[in-house]
Amino acid sequence: MNLFRKKSISELIRTSQRGQTLKRELGVLDLVLLGIGATIGTGIFVLTGTGALKAGPSLMISFVIAGLTVALTALSYAEFASTVPVSGSAYTYSYATLGELIAWMIGWNLILEYLLAVSLVSAGWSGYLQSLIAGMGIHLPDVITAAPGSTSGQTTLFNLPAFLIVLLITFLLSRGIKESKRVNNLMVLLKVGIILLFIVIGIWYVKPSNWTPFVPFGSSGIFAAAAMVFSAFLGFDAITTASEEARNPRRDVPRGILFSLLICTLLYMIVAAVMTGIVPYREFAGNEDHPVSLALQIAGQNWFAGFVDLGALLGMTTVMLVLLYGLTRITFSMSRDGMLPQWFASVHPKYRTPFGTTWMFGLVAGVTGGVVPLTQIAELVNMGTLSAFITISLGIIVLRVKQPDLPRAFRCPGVPVVPLLAILFCGFLIMQLSSVTWFAFAIWLLAGLTIYFAYSHKHSALRGEK
């Protein structure tokens, strides 16, 4: 059995140009806003609360560590994106360098990562919606406000707002990339404006005494928080799934990756510093699903807390939109290669989108966000992300060795040192995740291996090649 057969880069590009194709609508600004849209949301509006409980005021250092790890990996992603301008992200890049089995497992991990990330963000979106309408005197029945077991002292059965927002996004995505792009760009500009306004207003209420002790849980707390907030940087990965809908993917996708990552890292650090300067970190307990609006409430700026809730809703809406978009494009590529049934690569004749796949994943993500507690989702998302990043960093080293003369519009600097550092950083963060997360991830991997040997290996487009 040839488990490590590879698909050449030239063949990957030819395959993307045959049969049902996607519509090229995205320029470099669209890709930067796509990256910001997928990145700025949960990280600032949700994970800052849970991260502060692990690291205290040193959360800003946790964001630096996570951002540095992502930056090292992003350079490898940028080179791949300029060399292999095909949808599929880490799955496609692994197929060209490390072989089919590894590519399948990475694709399988990406499905877990993106699907659960949408569910994770939908739960945070629900928390901010409830905070916003509570300011208007509107309170939803407890049973439909959260997943079972999410809150103490309340009986909750289903997170209905989380489910409904995913359905709305699914409807939008199924209608076409042009419409989705316009909505994303508008919401990204609005939410960044609100975040900047929060910084300008909140900085006047920072009390340096709240930063003492700066590292209450030691270095282990900083690293644990870094592992927790790592998924906040998922956005740049989603940009690579848009390669087949970018007008000039070799040039614009690397730019979109690096520009959006720089902007988002700076915003994360500043917001974490301001937020923990306003609120003593212990007070985030029980309020971690809307920490930024909590900071403004404590500062006495209740009038603006509502705007922050609105910004959070816009921010997390774009995150879900881009991640669900990326998920359908990854499975589109996997299906085209025979790894999944051809139905996943079916394109609607009018909307030119993977219509059925979009609705299938939207329903699964919506139900998951409705019934699974927030904290149980976050670490699994990070496990899938980190494993994909390790593979990409290894793949760029392999590609440089085996195809050194391949035309590259962007070259990762410092190969192999930079990719090796990315592997070490990602591996270190993986070790900070809980044993329960490792066990759940092992079950997912086992399920993936079963599907590969039962279906994917036999139906691969490369099955007749040596």
Automatic annotation (TrEMBL):
GO CC aspect terms: membrane
UniProt GO MF annotations: amino acid transmembrane transporter activity
Plastid is among the record's keywords: no
Subcellular location: Membrane
Identification of the protein by name: Putative amino acid permease YhdG
Top-level taxon in the UniProt lineage: Bacteria
Source organism (scientific name): Marinithermofilum abyssi
PANTHER family cross-referenced by the UniProt entry: CATIONIC AMINO ACID TRANSPORTER 4, INNER MEMBRANE TRANSPORTER YGJI-RELATED
Mode of membrane association: Multi-pass membrane protein
Signal peptide residues on this chain, from the entry's feature table: none
Pfam family, one: AA_permease_2
Gene3D superfamilies: Amino acid/polyamine transporter I
Transmembrane segments: 26-47, 59-80, 101-125, 157-174, 186-205, 217-236, 257-279, 310-332, 353-374, 380-401, 413-430, 436-455
Record keywords: Membrane, Transmembrane, Transmembrane helix, Transport
